[in-house]
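This follows on from our talk about sequence and fold. I would like you to pick a protein and set down its sequence and fold. Go ahead and set the record down below:
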Amino acid sequence: MSLSSPEREWSNRRVELFQTTHWSVVLLAGRRVSGGSAAALEELCRAYWYPLYSYIRRRGYGVPEAQDLTQEFFARMLSKDWLAQAEPARGRFRSFLLASLNHFLANEWRRAQCQKRGGEKTFISLDDTAEGHYALEAVTEATPELAFDRQWALTLLQRALEQLRAEFAQRGRERTYDLLKDYLWQQGSAAAYQRASEQLKLSCATVSSLVFRLRQRYQELVRQEVADTVADPSEVDAELHSLMCALIAC
């Protein structure tokens, strides 16, 4: 049986998971960060700064102070040899980052508190909507650590979703994505699939197949996001489990 054009596009897209990832590049560089490892570390920091900002706010710091602390933390992270503390055997970036932040908050910020960094380079540009985002977070009695894990999970899920949409956009199929994205998390009814098939001018069977492949690709992208933050592929399932538990617990 020959595949339709949409099915063929999905079949032709084979993704190799667990190639060298951002965090493994950093860890493999050992105690010296240079070249690709420095770029990989900066990319990870840019991707996951918001959970740290949220964590600092939940620790009781005000908005300006939390912004300054987040900026200063990343400035030091990217300019100092903090990777000497990273152990490949326990190399989840999430755990390393939170431990480093707690150390920073407890010790290193004291002598620099309330000081501005002047003309120094800004390593991480904080989103202007960060505090608005924080204000929309659900009120919870969860510990700052558990809330941090939840925000980390939400961030990686959102990054995977953005990547999925970008892949459709690259093929000029944003409308297909917009019509089918809601079925990533819920089962569409026969009537819903029928409406989508009429709008896309595809058969219901093809729409059903596209939804299946959409979910499959999203799961791959989520796993890749997680893989980028662990030292070894064998840790992906455990990290996923921890983050999903945090989502359920909060």
